[in-house]
Amino acid sequence: MALLSIKNLTVTFGEGDNPFRAVDRISYTVDEGEVLGIVGESGSGKSVSSLSVMGLIDYPGKVKADELTFDGSDLLSLSANARRKITGDDIAMIFQDPMTSLNPCFTVGYQIVEALKVHGGGSKKELKARAIELLKQVGIPAPESRFDNYPHQLSGGMSQRMMIAMAIACNPRLLIADEPTTALDVTIQAQIIDLLVNLQKARGMGLILITHDLALVAEVAHRIVVMYAGQIVEMAPADQLFVTPRHPYTQALLRSLPEHSAGHARLQALPGVVPGKHDRPQGCLLNPRCPYATDRCRKEEPGLQPYPGNSARMVKCFYPLNDEGSPAV
Amino acid sequence: MLQFIFRRLLLVVPTFIGITLLTFFLIRLIPGDPIELLAGERGVDPARHAMLMAQMGLDQPILVQYMHYIADVLRGNLGTSISTREPVLHEFLTLFPATVELSLCATLFAIIIGLPAGILAAVKRGSVFDHSVMTISLTGYSMPIFWWALLLMLVFSVNLGWTPVSGRIDVTYWVDDVTGFMLIDSLLSDDKGAFISTLSHLILPSIVLGTIPLAVIARMTRSSMLEVLGEDYIRTARAKGLAPKRVIFIHALRNALIPVITVIGLQVGTLLAGAILTETIFAWPGVGKWLIEAIHRRDYPVVQGGILIVATLIILVNLLVDILYGVVNPRIRHNK
Ligand SMILES: Nc1ncnc2c1ncn2[C@@H]1O[C@H](COP(=O)(O)OP(=O)(O)O)[C@@H](O)[C@H]1O
Ligand SMILES: [Mg+2]
């Protein structure tokens, strides 16, 4: 049984017959010990979908799903109270900007102890000892003195380590990392990813690693979900996705990586931006930006289908790309 | 921190000079002089008038008078009242506790109602409650104090007879002056009736004086809370699985209070300005009423000295607010 199982998760904002679908019928699973990468440009619904797993989508946002289960229990049918018992305990999350994600008014020690306290407790001394142990685990030098630091006394990388310490405090079985390195220096990025992957391996957690940077997840993710405008356009084992992208959008993402575009005259990114609330096209949502779009793409929406001959791969395209990278006709 | 305080104190010097200039010349712009007003309708014979003016040094060129005044102030001498012959500072100190008592009660009233109203409005933004708080506080903010005072007086004192019309305590009680704060003094006097009488005298003036600060505090709390509730660290707090109460009252409120404290501190100016009207309407024997009467009597030393002291206090309170701001906000505390 999968640790997290999502079927047709939809998150809408706004009222009326046609509310904005920030997340549009996405389905995926994460197993224990698995690293799932979720990639996509900014605005493609990566954050909203993971926040809905955490139960952190507020009114007026609406979360619907045919299935949203964690370890077999249906998250959507839980009361708010029961849901909070899981949030931060079995499922934890870290965010994009560590510098603003810690409360400036409290010491980091206080904030970590607080995480331990809500889902367990213990004496003040025990909690502090455990917090310091966590700081050690996430590689913070001089943890005893760092314990009493305020967030503004920490660098970005150090803050993200604190966030990770806080997230793993209650031994979560699933950790969601939403662009954990986007706000950090390039030199620090690899360290944080290494830390996350090491913790994931050591603890056997499921890890959802969200990023807009395909290169980042290339080496660490087992499987990759590619999102576009709230939808999943491709899902594949990581090694296969990088060699043979089946969706034009994935291909474009790969081509925009520095190592691929080195020989090209210019970055081969797609022109345009992810459609938002008001400019969602008819048919396939990518069609205005897709070099291969046909009339059919402009009228009908393709479904997310297994790629012919490989059931481990799913692609949402009428003309999935072949091994040479050209669309099937 | 010490350096910070010192720098702030240095900035006070030009402010002081400005205040002395303003009070000194503005009060002299009003027609009439202290002697004329002291004499009243009977009038005063010109020769005697000139003599008395000369006695008080009011016949000298205005700039010379100003220099004398500044020289006195620098020696710590605020002069004596023309009408009572009492030292200005002494009069001020006798009356000040009444004003402080009223202002504190008004502030307390404003905080006790304004803070929770602002918090709740932010948490339930867009709700009927939120809209009501915003509308009522806007009304309160723009309500003319004297009109509001008369309205309350009419309803609660005259029609319903629940509260006394004016003064600090019923004339039938005699309370020894220990602290100058009637609430404390009447409590010390062991006479329950005196305490209750004091309390009932405080209610309407406190509400009147506290209305504008209440509106400001409620609106400021609401907007500050709204801003803080959208911060990333609130999402982090919720992602830990904390209960909404804890998220709001521990994680959000602590941050939201920082600007609110500043605003409360800045209300001291508003309060003292409001006290002038409120005290006059409710015959509250405080500094505000004293200043108004001094202006009517052209009692130059009282007006100049009184306003200078009040301004000093406002400046000090603002300084205190800045320090307090550093205490609640670690980012400032650590920036030495
Ligand atoms: N609270 C909200 N109200 C309305 N729209 C929202 C809200 N949060 C996110 N969105 C919209 O949902 C879409 C997906 O956002 P997001 O999940 O943050 O994208 P990503 O994380 O992939 O960059 C965006 O178009 C964004 O504007
Ligand atoms: Mg995001």
* Residue runs with pLDDT of under 50 for 5 or more positions of chain A: 263-267
CATH architecture of the largest domain in chain A, please? 3-Layer(aba) Sandwich
Could you state the CATH homologous superfamily of the largest domain in chain A? Answer: P-loop containing nucleotide triphosphate hydrolases
Q: Compute the number of strand runs of chain A.
A: 13
The strand line-up of the biggest sheet of chain A is 7-8-9-3-10-11-13-12
Domain ABC transmembrane type-1 (chain B): 96-325
Membrane topology (chain B): Multi-pass membrane protein
Family (chain B): Belongs to the binding-protein-dependent transport system permease family. OppBC subfamily.
Keywords (chain B): Cell membrane, Membrane, Transmembrane, Transmembrane helix, Transport
Folded structure, characterized:
The complex is a heterodimer of chains A (about 325) and B (about 325). Chain A is of the alpha/beta class and about 325 residues long. Chain A is built from 13 helices and 13 strands. Chain A folds into 2 domains: about 220 residues, Rossmann fold, CATH 3.40.50.300; about 70 residues, no CATH class. In chain A, helix 4 runs parallel beside helix 7. With about 325 residues, chain B is mainly alpha-helical. Chain B has 2 domains: about 55 residues, no CATH class; about 240 residues, MetI-like (MetI-like fold, Orthogonal Bundle), CATH 1.10.3720.10. Chain B contains 14 helices and no strands. The longest helix of chain B is centred in the middle third of the chain and has 38 residues. Chain B is globular. Chain B starts with a helix and ends with a helix. The mean pLDDT of chain B is about 90. Chains A and B meet through helix 2 and helix 4 of A and helix 10 and helix 11 of B.
